[in-house]
Every structure is written in C-alpha cells, then in structure tokens.
Amino acid sequence: MKKLISREENYSEWYNELVVRAGLAEHSAVRGCMVIKPYGYSIWEKMQSELDRRFKDTGHENAYFPLFVPKSLFEAEEKNAEGFAKECAVVTHYRLKNDPSNPGKLMVDPEAKLEEELVVRPTSEAIIWNTYKNWIQSYRDLPILVNQWANVVRWEMRTRLFLRTAEFLWQEGHTAHATKEEAVEETVKMLDVYAEFAENILAIPVIKGVKTESERFAGAEDTYCIEALMQDGKALQAGTSHFLGQNFAKAFDVKFAGKDGKLDYVWATSWGVSTRLMGALIMTHSDDNGLVLPPQVAPIQVIIVPIYRTDEEQTQTIEAGKQICESLKKIGIRAKLDDKDNQKPGWKFAEYELKGVPLRIAVGPRDLAQNSVELARRDTQEKATISMDGLSERIENLLVEIQQGLLNKAFERMTQNTREANNFEEFKEILNGPGGFISAHWDGTPETEEAIKAETKATIRCIPLNRSAEPGVCVFSGKPSSGRVLFARAY
Amino acid sequence: MKKLISREENYSEWYNELVVRAGLAEHSAVRGCMVIKPYGYSIWEKMQSELDRRFKDTGHENAYFPLFVPKSLFEAEEKNAEGFAKECAVVTHYRLKNDPSNPGKLMVDPEAKLEEELVVRPTSEAIIWNTYKNWIQSYRDLPILVNQWANVVRWEMRTRLFLRTAEFLWQEGHTAHATKEEAVEETVKMLDVYAEFAENILAIPVIKGVKTESERFAGAEDTYCIEALMQDGKALQAGTSHFLGQNFAKAFDVKFAGKDGKLDYVWATSWGVSTRLMGALIMTHSDDNGLVLPPQVAPIQVIIVPIYRTDEEQTQTIEAGKQICESLKKIGIRAKLDDKDNQKPGWKFAEYELKGVPLRIAVGPRDLAQNSVELARRDTQEKATISMDGLSERIENLLVEIQQGLLNKAFERMTQNTREANNFEEFKEILNGPGGFISAHWDGTPETEEAIKAETKATIRCIPLNRSAEPGVCVFSGKPSSGRVLFARAY
C-alpha cells in the first residue's frame, strides 16, 4: 500500500489524501459539495448521538424547519442578510422542460419562474424567527429550546473536504427567552456543552472565548466560540454559540406579554457545530500512517485479524477470533473480526492503521498455543503479547487509557504552542516560526485587528473567557490594553 | 378546549386540524413546505431509530450525498428525469446583492449565474450512481449497501401536511449488486423490512404488492410497495422498494469485472419511506378526540397528572406521582409527570388526549388513601381504579396490549373494507359507498387502468404478492384476467 505523503512534507496534501484514502469523504460532481462516505458518516453519527443526548439532557427538543427562505424573510434582519448574501444559492424556478433545440436534454422552464426567489438556508434564524412569531404570545410560551439537525449551503469559492464545503451538515439550536440574563446563560451553557463534548468525546482540548466584533456572527450581539489548535499550528473554530439579543425579535416583530402584561421583544440565542468537526478530529490526532481515532467516536474500536497458513489454522484462529469478538461485544465494545480470505494480514494491518482503529488484535497459531494474542495500539504504535485471560477487561481499560492519552497529548501540544508575544517582532517571529496560539495585547480597535490581519494573516481567535486582567500595551499600536487575546492563523 | 371537527363531518378538515392542534406540524412561510414541530419530530425520531436499526441489522451503512444534482447528471437517466422534471426546484444563481433601486433590499446578482443549473434533489439516484461509478471496478466492490437520511424537494401544487409537501424528510437506500437475482432479493427484503416495521412499530397493517407499469417509479423495472388503508376508505402508499435493473448503471456507465474478468453493468435497487408515514400513522389510529399513538412511537407513553385542592394535597400527590414516574422510567417506559400548577387537571386530560398519550394516570388524595390510582386508556377510553402494588408491571403489559390492540383494530377495519367486485357496477357501488380496497379482475392493459381511473378516480394500488391465481374477466373490459388486483382511491 502506497504511503501517505508526510505531514512534514505537505500538511495540506497529507490531510486531503488522508480524508480520501481512509474512506471518509470525497469531492462530488457538484462544485464544492462532498460525498460523506460510510466510514466518515459513521463517525459523524457517533458525534451526533453524543451531542443529541447532551442537548436533550439540557432540555432541548428537535424540530425541522424549511430548507428554503423566501428572499423577503431572508433580508429582514439586515446584518444577518448582509453577512450571508454573497454566498447564497438561490432557487429561481420550479420546473424543467424538454429543450426543443436539444433532444433528450432538459432546460429550465422560463414559464416556471418563482414570484419570489428562495434562498437555500445558509443558517435558519430568519425562517425560524418568522415561525416563532406565531408560537410566542406570553411569558408562558417561553423559553423555547429547539434544535435542528440539517444541511445548509454557503457558496464557497475555495473548498476543502469537511473544513469548508458549499453544503455541510450541522445542528443549529435556536432558543427564545423572556430575559437577557436567561439568554446569556443559555449561550454560555451551550458553549460549555460543546467544550465538554470536544474534550471528552473528540479528545480535542479547546479554548473558550468570545469573538471580537469583526469576527462575530452576522446578526449577533456576542459570539462565543471554542477554538482548537491543529498540528500545523493553525487554529480551527470548532463551535459557536451566539447571544442574538433582541435583533431577530425586532426584525420579525416577536413580542411577548410579561407577567405584568407589558409587551417586550423576545431574547434569542443560536448555536451550532458542523461536519467541520470531522476536520478538527482528523487534524488533531492523525499521523503519517493515517487516521488516529479516539475510541469514543471510532466506528470500530477493536479489529481482530486471524493469522494462518493451513486450513486447520484458519479454522482455529477464526474460531478464536470470533470468541474474542463476541466477548468484547458483550461488554459494549465495538469489535470486528476481519476473516476475509482475499487479503493478507499485512494488507489488513495497514488498512486498519489507515482507518485509525484504536486497537488491533492478531490471533495466530503460536499465540493460541500460548493462550495469548498480539495487541497493537494505534496511537502509540506499541505492540505486546497479552494473555487471553482477562482480555476483555484489559481492552476496556486500554480504550479509556487511549482516549485520555489522546486528549493529554493534544493538550500538551496546545500548551506548548501557546506563546506570549510582547511586541510585534516577537509576534511575527512566532507566527512565521512554529505558529500556534499567540497571546498578545491588543488595543481593542477593529482597525488594529484589521491591520494585523492584513500584514500577517493572523486573526484574533477569541478573547479567552478565563483571561486574567493584565494591563499592557498593544503589540501593534502601542496603545493601552486591559488584557491579552489569542491570535493565530486559522482554518 | 374547543373540540375537533369530527371525522364524520369532514375527514379532511379533521386531519388538518388534528395535525396542527396536536402540535405535530404547521404550514410555513414557504409555499408547500412545513415546519415539523417538536412533538411531531419526536415521533419521527422514533420511526427513524427503529428503521435505522433494521437497516443496519440487514447490513446497510449510512452515507451522505449532495443536495444538488447538476442538470447534466439529472437528465442522464431519461425516464427518471422525465418523471421528476416537472417538479424540480432549480438553483440558477449563487449570490444576492443590494438592490440599487430598493435600499435595504436584496436582489439576485445577475453576474452570479451558474454555468450549469443545479436541481435540488427530488431523489438521489443520479448523483449517487454518478458516485458509485468511481467506487465500483470489480465484483469485489459489490454489493454496496448504502442508505441516506435526507431532505428532498418535489414541487407540488396542492400540498397537505405530511402527506404531500414540497420538501419532505425521508431515507433512501441505494444498493448495487453483481447479479439480477441478488438485486431482486434486496428489493423484496427491504419491502419486508418496511412491512414488518409498519405493522409492529406503527401498528399499521399493510398489503405488500407490485405496482403496475403506470404507477412505477420513474426509472425502475419494478416497484414494490406497501399499501395501507385509512379510516375514510382511501389507500395510502406507505413505502416503496424499486428494482432498478441496469438502467442507472447504463445511464452512468457503471460496469464491474466479474470473477471471470468479463465486464457487465451493475444491478441496482432503491427504497424509501418518508415523513408521509406520519400522515399514515395519524389517519390510521386517531379519533374525534385527537391523536391516538401506538406506544412504540409515543414520545410520552404514560402521563401522570396529580389532582389536588390544598397545598398539602399538592405536595402529597406530586410526591406520589414522582415515585410512580421514576419506577416506570426505571423499566424503560417513557413516563412524564405534569406537575405544572397553572393548568387544571381537566385541561391537562384534554391536552394529553389530543396528543394521543397511550396511558394516563391520575393521582388524587382519595386514590392515595386507598393505595391506588386512576388509570385511563387513550385507545379504548376505558378508566379503572388500579392498585399501586405491581403498577409498573401492569402498565408494561398494558402498553403491549394497546400496541397489539391498535394493530388488530386496524387490521379488522382493513379486512372489512376489502371487497371483491365482479363487475363494473359493483365496483362503482363499493367505491361510491364505503370505499376501501376493491379486489377485482383487470385485463392487464394500461388503457383499461387509465379508463377506470378517469371514470372513478380509483387507481390500481398494487398487484398483491400473495394473490392466488384465479382466472376471470376484467370488470371494465370483459377481457380475460389471470388474477385480482387491488383498486382504491388513494392519498
């Protein structure tokens, strides 16, 4: 099997090759849209079920709103409309007909032009707040805690599998509240849900913070985010949670009568994570041999490969493999026996390594004679001969250890790659050297932020929630600053 | 609470009112598109998880393919294209811009016209077979057993919530096989999965059959279906499974090398069920008081309502309710205690009746004194005073009984409303009287089928798989027939 290009050689190519060769996704015939292949989709399903449970545990329900947004609704909240107008796929017609000049071909039927164009949702605030208008009369109708799993479309000129695609899958929570305090609390609560999920399920450590005004979601009062650091020193925004204030309530005239009978606009939040998380997952843990998956989201946690030469050995090793597989499944481990006879063990080893299966068990005749198996860890590449006695428990513990190990490793990398810069020379040295997060003082103005971005391509990833008050001077302008923010080049 | 209009008075209005008042779905601002509300969506989630498990148990994996189909791919399989061309939403532009003549408004940017129009998928055979082309080289790559959960769009002029909407949610399985036999086997296997699911989970009895040529899926060689009968005597197609032959493989040039090295076109199937099943579920079981849900798909299986006057009674009955709720949850029953103080018990009773909750437990002070509760069944409207001892087991058994009872009742109704007609007078008498399924001889020609439809609005729902060979004469043409087919007016 041809080796992947190395991360050292070309990180970007390594990522593209890995996504395709591990069977996660591929480009489709539709510009900028991807096909999520079964192996990639099954990882996404694991993410979905973990997130969905967390949403429900925090009182949210799922619902479904239309794919299309009539243009007049889309433009109602001006900032939101302005932010997304340039990347909207627009439906203008509702019928095709036979092309008279081209037998066997179809053409758009000019007589089937829509009176009002429909925007394919880039996000659903507009259609949802237009709906909530009818759901909300009084404080008794609040809060509304709704989430939607859906596809959205943002027309992107430069796309990359999972990281930036014209169509992507996501969830979008949209909540409505009677008070500002409650809405802010919800915004932060869902940010915490995302951070806990990223760390405990994806083994991706994240920094929780707030975006600057220029990086804010179009239509939000405040955008909270979780930011992760990839192996190449670039940051990746892994999830956002927006406090929308009363902007959408005002745009769609959504008022409620309080306990005192007084009418007021409703407060809103929205929050989302997408298939982009697949990109974050891949780039956080994988190595030059392929994907490395945290056990929590691995479709196969343990692969069992029988090793044999004779027919008798084949029967014996497969039988032993089956028994191990069954005993693992019994305790809830996603184990699989690969007893296909048309591929050699070496090929299988490489394949499951490429696919990031956390543990591999090889069962050969010599192992069987010694009541043992060969156990190989994907993350550390360690191999050991292990007794069959107590194997299931051993593996159960190892999976927990691997999960924790991946988080620790990523956390250490993030810590080592978070550096303070106290002047602009240092700032650029770090950026053009190892990269990573740069913690630096900023004067708080969009002008300085923009100037830094223009000169270095680094953006302010966030103002960390846990930053300490530390007076200083802006690395760029020398003006006073009340605390450090995190800069990085980003995906 | 205002009563629903009765089924007797206006079945169609009853359905519309019920869907909205039970909080299942509502019309949106987008013509023909619906909002699936949280209560409706949670029923759909139950259906999804039951179906998804069955798909995986039969060896299928989920994947995701693009929402858009480039026009040139869409038109590749001619019959399929012809069948859907008239109901396609078409994306022609990828950007909006400020409307210079209308400040604050947006317009489609004429400079952002797509070179090739994109069809919003009405079904995904085209985009998927164009993808499979690259996945399949030899017999070793087969079978491909993939399913997709997705939204699709078919522009409909006359829409009804769940039954016929421009956008709907569905799953579509798309499989590829080396032999015709295997593909036919798959088609029938998935039909059986649908039938088993409909009967055991939705408590909807169905007739399995094959469609006539004129009712076939555009591009299929054979369309298998399950047909259900609604309370008003109209049939509803609840799921279809298509044997696609080599049509799509030929249209997209998908060949595989067999074991002998010879190239041949791949054989295909596709199969789907949609949110239309929600309509079938509602219309099969519900009554003039509202929704009736089979326990298997009821988001709440048991609702517990405390009855009290004094504060002390409130504390006691809520405490008892909590205990009952916990003990039910412990054995996996979806129970809920409604201890809200701002609504009276009578209001709650009506509300949960409208929402179709299978069992209601009322806990009052007098009940408590006697160590009992009042238990009411939604399906039969029976009420009884039941001892608290062994209550959980009693309820567990009752839920099974209700599920079975609903299926039996629907099955009896279907049997009673399936009648033989041996001439066209009888045929019309039944159709204009009770309606239902009419089992009648047909000469096998599309002309006769069309003539019957034109005169009576009845269509051939299916040629039942289990029909017996019975020579006869066509009710319309008097020509010979080899067996009966099922006619009905249909949704």
Write down the overall geometry of chain A: globular
Enter the CATH topology name of the largest domain in chain A: BirA Bifunctional Protein, domain 2
Biggest sheet strand order of chain A reads 3-9-10-16-13-12-11-24-27-23-22
Integer average pLDDT of chain A: 97
Low-confidence stretches of chain A: none
Largest sheet descriptor of chain A: 11 strands, mixed
Q: In percent, how much strand structure appears in the residues of chain A? A: 25-35%
Count of discrete alpha- or pi-helical segments spanning 4 or more residues of chain A: 14
What is the CATH superfamily of the largest domain in chain A? Bira Bifunctional Protein, Domain 2
Oligomeric grouping of the chains: homodimer
Distance between the termini of chain A: 30 Å
Computed CA radius of gyration of chain A, to the nearest angstrom: 26 Å
CATH class of the largest domain in chain A: Alpha Beta
Which characteristics define this entry?
homodimer, 491 residues, alpha+beta, BirA Bifunctional Protein, domain 2, Rossmann fold, Translation Initiation Factor IF3, 11-stranded mixed sheet, 5-stranded mixed sheet, 14 helices, 27 strands
